[in-house]
Amino acid sequence: MRKIIIASMAAAAFSLAACSEKTQDAAGETADSMADDAAAAGDAMAEGAADAADATADAAAEAGNAVEGTVNAAGDAADKAGDKIAEETKKAEANDKQ
């Protein structure tokens, strides 16, 4: 009887050890999976940040071009206004001489 109890206890110990090993393996796989997910999330965030930086740079360049175009248009308008003023001043001076 004693041998049966000892054999039963040994079998129980082995089954617990095997169960514990399976649990450790599952925990290890879960940890690996979590690490892979974290790495993928980090990569996605880095890629998203790079895309956002590129978009910001593109928007800044477009804004710079728009400002340059506006400045050029304002300069052209000022030149035309200056020419018109000079023309009207000549006309006024010609009228004053008459």
Low-pLDDT stretches: none
* Topology as a string of helices (H) and strands (E): H
Total number of helices = 1
Oligomer: single chain
| Radius of gyration from CA coordinates | 42 Å
- Helix fraction? over 70%
Helix/strand/pairing category: mainly alpha
Largest sheet, in brief, is: none
- The average pLDDT score comes to 78
Amount of beta strand: under 5%
Give the overall form. rod-shaped
Terminal CA distance reads: 143 Å
Number of strand segments = 0
What this model shows, in words?
The protein is an all-alpha fold and 98 residues long. It contains one helix and no strands. The protein is rod-shaped and about 140 Å long. The mean pLDDT is 78.
In short:
By secondary structure, this protein is mainly alpha-helical.
Question: Strands, helices and their partners?
Answer:
Blueprint: H1 2-97
Question: What tags apply to this protein structure?
Answer:
98 residues; mainly alpha; 1 helix; 0% strand
